[in-house]
Design goal:
The chain is mostly helical and 87 residues long. It is built from 3 helices and no strands.
């Protein structure tokens, strides 16, 4: 075989190995022993301190310095659809 054929064969084999690994990891569920070892993970959020910087809080409340980029939308109009429930 020519060198080009050998390189193509190696690349094809590598693609099959990677595809096989991905299929195996996506289709095979984790074993029960692995799930028991990890357990349930809980994130504990600490208490919020009451001594915030009042200057920063006033800056956040000032509409000339802070802009809210949220787009307001009204759900009471049916969003422009005359037959909201497909009638």
């Amino acid at each position: 075989m020519k060198r080009k054929d050998v390189i193509s064969l190696v690349i094809a084999a590598l693609i099959f190995v990677v595809a096989g690994y991905l299929v195996y990891t996506q289709l095979m569920p984790k074993s029960a022993s692995t799930a028991k070892q990890q357990g349930t993970q809980i994130e504990v959020v600490g208490s919020i301190e009451s001594n915030f910087d009042s200057g920063t809080l006033s800056q956040l409340g000032d509409s000339s310095q802070v802009h809210d980029y949220a787009i307001p939308f009204d759900l009471t109009t049916g969003l422009g659809n005359q037959s909201v429930f497909g009638q």
